[in-house]
Each structure stands twice: as C-alpha cells, then as structure tokens.
What we know:
Layout (H helix, E strand, L loop, with lengths): L6 H66 L2 H8 L5 H21 L4 E6 L11 E3 H4 L5 H6 L5 E5 L6 E10 L4 E11 H4 L12 E6 L32 E8 L2 E9 L5 E7 L1 H51 L14 H60 L3 H18 L5 E3 H18 L4 E7 L7 E3 L4 H11 L7 E10 L2 E8 L6 H9 L10 H13 L4 E7 L3 E9 L11
Parallel strand pairs: 1-2, 11-13
Antiparallel strand pairs: 1-5, 3-4, 4-5, 6-9, 7-8, 8-9, 10-12, 13-14, 14-16, 15-16
Helix pairs in contact: 1-7, 2-3, 7-8, 8-9, 9-10
Amino acid sequence: MWSQIRLLQKLIFVLIVFLIVPVLVASISLFSITLPLAQRETRDMLDKVVDQLHENVQYRATGYQNMLMQMAMDPRLSASLTQTYSELQDEVLALQQINASISRVRSYFPIKSIRFYKNNPTLREDGGSVLNMERAELLPWTAAMSESRQSFYWYFDAANPQPAFHIGKWLVDYMSNDNYGIIDFEVTTQALFENLANPLEFEESWIVIADQNGNALIDYRELKTGNSIADLTYLQKSYDSESGSYTTRIDGKNHLVVYQTTSLGWKIMTIVSQEALWERLQLVRNAAITASILFVVLTLVVLISFGKRITSRLNVLIRSMRKVREGTLGLTVRINGKDELGDVEAAFNQMSRQLEASMLENAAARSAAETEKLRLLQAQINPHFLYNTLALVKSMAMDAGSAEISGTVDALAKFFRLALNQGRDVLLLREELEHIQAYLDIHEWRYPGKVTVHYDVEEAALPCEIVKITLQPIVENALLHAFAHRGGRGEVRISAQLVDQLLHIVIEDDGKGLNEVQLRDLMRSPVQESVGGFGLYNVRERLDRFYGAGFEMTVASEPEQGTAVSLKIPQLNKQPEGATR
C-alpha cells in the first residue's frame, strides 16, 4: 500500500509522522528534560562561585600569614625583643621601633591589633603591643597553640562581641632553636571577609562560611557571626567530605548546596533555591513551543510547494526513461537547474547518448575476456614446458657424464619450481630456505668452496609464511657485492625465530660493508638486475605492499665490518605447534 502512494503524499505523511508529532512530543517533554540540565548548569555555576570564593578567602588568609612570617623573621624586631637592656633609653628606642613596624603593617592590612608576648625580663611592657609571656598564658588559645605543630595557629574567638581571629606564631631563635616569644595578629571577621559579596544571580541564594568547629564566620539569614550552625541540620552534610554538592529542603523548598573546604578547615557553602530555576524554565518552555509551531507551519508551506515542483520534474524523467527502455536511444530531457535533480537529468541525457556505445564496448570487453582466459590457460602450460626442458637437459648432462651441469640444472629446476610456486605468492619459510639453498647450490657448482653458509633457524619458525623470493635477493646481493674484494670468498649467516606472532629473520655477511651514502642510496632507489638482482629496495617495497604497517625491515652496515639485514614479518595465523624441520 505504501509503495502505491505518490511521492508528494509520502512527503506530507512523513512530515506529519516524523516532524510534527515528534515536535509536539518534544515540546511537552522539554520542560522535564531541561530541568536536570538546568540543575547541572546551576551546579557547575555554583562550583565556579565556590572556587572563586575559596581562592579569595585563601588569598586573604595567606596574605596575613605571609605578613606574620615577615614580621617574625625581621632581624630588627628579633634583636629588639631578645637583647639585654640596662638603660631605659635603649628600652624606649626598642619599643618605639617595634611600634613603628606595627604601624606600618596596620597601614596596609586591616588588623585590629598586633601584640608581641616576650620572655625577655630586661624589656619592659608598653601596655599595648609588647607584653610579658605570663599574659599570653592566660589567653584561651595559648595552650592549644603549644600543642599544635603547624607554623601558624588560627583561633576563632566567637565569644568576642566583635568576633575575630587570633593568628599566632612562635618567635624562634634559629641559632639556639629556642622560643623567645609569640607574635599575635587579631583580625576581625569583618576585615577578613569584607567586600565578599554574593556573586549569585538568584534572589533566594546565600553564602555560608563556617570554621571546622561549625561556627559561622559571616552572617547567614538570622544566624549571626560566631553562632553555631549545629541547629541547621541541612548544612551538616557538608562536613562529611572535603567538597561536593547535594540537594536539601530549607523552609519546605528544595535547595542546592555546593561546598568546598579551605586549607584551614573552613567550609565555604553556596545555597540556591531550585524554585528560582522554575521561572526561567517556564520561559524556555514557552519559547520552545512557540518556535516549534512556527517551524511546523513554515515547513508545511515550503515542503508542499517544493514537493510539487520536484514531482513534476521526476514525472518527466520517468516518462523519458520508459521511452529509452522501449528502444528510443539518444533521448534527452531539459535540465531545470543545478541541484541534485538537475544532476540526475544531466546524467540521464549522458546515459541515453552513451548507451549504444556502452553496448558495443561491453561486446568488445567480453571478447577480450575470452582472449585473456585463453592466455591464462597458456600460462599454466609454460612452467610445465620449462620443467620438462630442464629435466631433458639434466638427462643429457648425465648421459655425457657431466655432474656439474647435471647438479646445476637440477638446482635450477628446483629454484624455478619454488619461485613459480604454482602462481601463489606465499611460501612457508621452510620452502623459502629450500629456494635459497637451490640458488646457493648453483653458486657452489660455479664457484666451489668460496662461500660458507650457516643456518640458525628455530623449529617453530619453519612453518611460518613469507612472500616468495624475499630472502634470495638479499643473499644474492651478499654473494655478488659483499665479497668482491676477496675474490668471492666469505661467510653468510641466516637466522630465524618466531617471537610474539612476528617472524624475525636476520641475514648477515662478513663482507666489505657499506658506508652511510651507499646504504642510503641502496634503500632509496631500486637496484638494476645487472648489479644485484632485485635489490633490497624491491624486497622492501613488495613486503610493505603485502603486509602494510606490520612489516619492518632494517639494514645495519659498517665498512669492512659486514652487513646485516633484519626482517620482522607478521604472522596472521596462530602460532604453530609441534613444528619440525
């Protein structure tokens, strides 16, 4: 039934089923889908806000610690607090110098007070900035500071009418490693967190900063600085880990809480109402529905108009094709544009004009195929003729009593039999070694006793596959070139082993070797048959085309040190077991 419907009707039906209906369904589900997306975006935004607040607070805390360290390491202050005084005038000058340093620091940093608690009995108290150590021992944070191993000790004085931090550090004589006092910064929470505004864009959103003991460090709704947040159960989950996020209910509404922990153990939390997101999602949903309706109406109008024009052009093509099918060759249609359908019209015209010529070409191709088939059959006869001829020559040599000619012809026949390999491109390594040995036998008959060949082949490597006529050109290069300066005398070593599905083959000679220029030229361009058989270049090209990226060939050579050609050939089949030579 579907196949009998016209194209324009199909397009309208497909538009309704696959466009209008999905758009309506998408519009209905858009709000529910965008809600988790908006929550995720809000969470990402809150993560960035928390990171920004964390860096800001950490930067301020580090600034106070650096200033505290700078004053603790000041050699002038250290000398003023530790030297022995016998004259009142010297004490006054020392106290003035200490207070001058304090004034300079307080002019740059908002610090409520800076006090030095000293062990030096010869230096009097000034009643404000320089005090005896006995006074520090009465303070609530001194004992805890003595037990702390940290360089700086932060103590939050929540009981103070104006909540503040005491940042303390022991003053150490680095010559004797003895403590000679304490330096204490008193910094109000207002000074530490001033201008720390809420960067969130929502009305119902807050920032909470609390210390490791759960004391609020800034005001939060009705909670004042210094009060405990223990009663706010919805914030207790933030103390379960260093950082993270979770949803909770505050005043009957869902809220998202994102938190992070500073190096001092303070918790920085951002809270935003998820109800505030709802209003924005309503706007998104309404905009999506309106856009969907406009899109559907415009699409219907455009599609119907466009479909009528397309179907008209298709009908012309269909009628013309029927005429060509009936035998009217060379028929053409009008090309009505440069779109895809215009390409079809142009292709139809070209097809119609070339149809007759194509039929003639097909007939010629069939004739050529028959000729090629006959040639292939003839090619199968030629090797048999070659083997029979070599066998006849061998018999004639034996009749003439020439063992050299008989052995050479026998080796040559074996050489060609393995090289031709019944038209197959792949041999077993065992057969490839026989092919090399046939070539070496021919060489031995011609030049007896000049070349010694050693084989070091593992049993497991013999059944491995290798492209035929791979090793013979390498051995031929060694025989024809490596030993030329010795009158053709030398040694060749052939080793093979199977490692991790790779057939490793190394062919070495102890000949004259090659310098860098000769080696580069040898691998860069093919060697002519008159000077070295197929050459290393041809071997590498054939193996590279056959195996691709899995094949590797390297040549190492030094003048007067010989040459070593290494091959790594991938084995696609499983590793053979129980192979024998």
